[in-house]
Amino acid sequence: MGLNIAKKIIKEHLVEGDMLPDEEIAIKIDHTLTQDATGTMAYLQFEAMDIPRVKTKRSMSYVDHNTLQTGFENADDHAYLQSVAAKHGLYFSRPGNGICHQVQFERFDVPGDTLLGSDSHTPTAGGLGMLAIGAGGLDVAAAMAGAPFYMPMPKTTLIKLSGKLQPWVSAKDVILEVLRILTVKGGVGKIMEYGGEGIASLSATDRATITNMGAELGATTSIFPSDEVTRQFMASQGRENEWKKLKADPDAEYDETIEINLNTLDPMIAQPHMPDNVVKVSEVAGTKIDQVAIGSCTNSSLRDLMVVAGALKGKTVHPTVSLCISPGSKQVFEMIARNGALADLIASGARILESACGPCIGMGQSPKTNAVSIRTFNRNFEGRSGTNSAQVFLAGPEVAVAAAIFGEITDPRKLGTAISFNVPEKYLVDDNMIIPPVENTDNIEVIRGPNIKPLPQNSELPEAITGKILLKVGNNITTDHIMPAGAKVLPLRSNIPAISEHVFAPIDPEFPKRAKECGGGLILGGENYGQGSSREHAALAPMYLGVKAVICKSFARIHRQNLINFGIFPLKLANPADYDKINQMDEVQIPNAASALKIGETTLELINKTSGATIQLAHDLSAREVKIALAGGRLNEIRSKS
Ligand code: MIC
Ligand code: SF4
Question: Which listed site, 101, 425, 568, 609, has its alpha carbon 20 to 30 Å from 444?
Answer without folding.
Answer: 101
